[in-house]
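User: Can you help me understand a structure? I only have the sequence.
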Amino acid sequence: MAERKSGSIVNWQVLSPILSIFRLAPEKGESFPAYKAGQYIALRRDDCKLKRKVVDANGTARYLPDLDEDGNPKRGSVTHSYSIASAPYETQQSGYLEFYIILQQDETGEMGRLTESLFRVHLENDNQVIYVDRIAGDFTLEKRATGFQNVLLVGTGTGLAPFAAMIKQLHYEALQGKADQRRFTLLHANRTYNELAYHLELSAIEAANKFDFVYVPTVSRPDQRDLNNPAIGKGRATNLLRRIFEMRLKEEEDVENAASDEQRTKARAALEKAVTPALPSHISPQRLLERLDPEQTVILTCGNPKVMSEIKTIADTNHIHLEKEDW
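Assistant: Let's start by predicting it. Here is the structure, written out as tokens:
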């Protein structure tokens, strides 16, 4: 079994109240194991608010705060694996691992056990994070994209993390004269512009043109600034993907497939609220379609399970091979 070691958070960047990027330094005198872009590592904090599983009469499981006899939250250790957002070359040069995380909340507003603890980190007096001294996972270009000329990466929310690592590593290797000859397209989606982690860096990599890379950022809840910004796409990732492949919006399909008047009313209301998908002005659907010949394309996706399920539907409809990060 891999040894547990104690690292320290040395940088914390706030993107929004629920999204942050942080850097983790290894235990003093140690270094992190070598890894490939797309892999993950297990992290642990020891002061997490614990939960207990409760199953109701219908067999539905819920997780409620685990309280002691005085009504105070019980605390203990919680371990969870996170995709690494830093590129391998960054870790080799600077020593740290970087992570892009969300403060998880359930339908009642109760915060996730480990992320609640991480978001309470204080860089000066409470910055310790235990990590398993082993980096694992096969969600890598070597394992998931070999044999395909076109690679479409679809990263929603913090699901961008493995793709940020991949693109940064590809750019670095291209600068070293080892450019990958495949065509890479990244569809990067989040709710707002501020939550588009790595946006400026990814835009700069695209502009540098050191390898064949097209970057498609989009926001699902655009404000007026976003609407006035031609470099940013609008709409949910799945609907933007549907537009590229000349499919109807998911909300339009839901209206047509509604089985009752009540379902139809709800579906129409959702359709009225849906943001009309629009690509960044410098990218046309035709240009993207030319890069995504089904026989030569693989879609890699990471993010919300429901979103990945819809992306699978889109991939299956267009006879495109799909690879998901499911660990």
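Now, to help you interpret it: The chain has a mean pLDDT of 94. The chain has eleven helices and 14 strands. Let me know which part you'd like to focus on.
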